[in-house]
Amino acid sequence: MRNRRWLADGIAALSLLLLVTAEIMGYIANHGWAIGNVAGGGAFVIGFGGVGWLLWLRVPHNPIGWSFSVSGLASAVAFLAHGWAGLALTGQIEPDMLTRASAMVDTYGWLVAIPLAVPVP
Q: How far apart are CA 78 and CA 113, in angstroms?
């Protein structure tokens, strides 16, 4: 039981860390806060990730909590990739293989995040 708590807390903390990092990258790339990025990315990561974390802690054998937590993490990774690709598009960093991979994750990251957020009975 303790290992599950540790894993749930770790996924939640990593999701929040990635979200904050993505927000900072978005701030640097846009030379200011972009409200759409904050609202869209933050709502999905905090919404699904937070509900998944709470479900995981309260009902650890429920697969919906696991699914929502991983969906929030996948969305945070895609949001971080969006920030990195934005930095490359604005000329803040040099385009390289990591930038291309980030653009692919930014484009297709929803293919992992959205299906995990839909509970199937």
A: 9
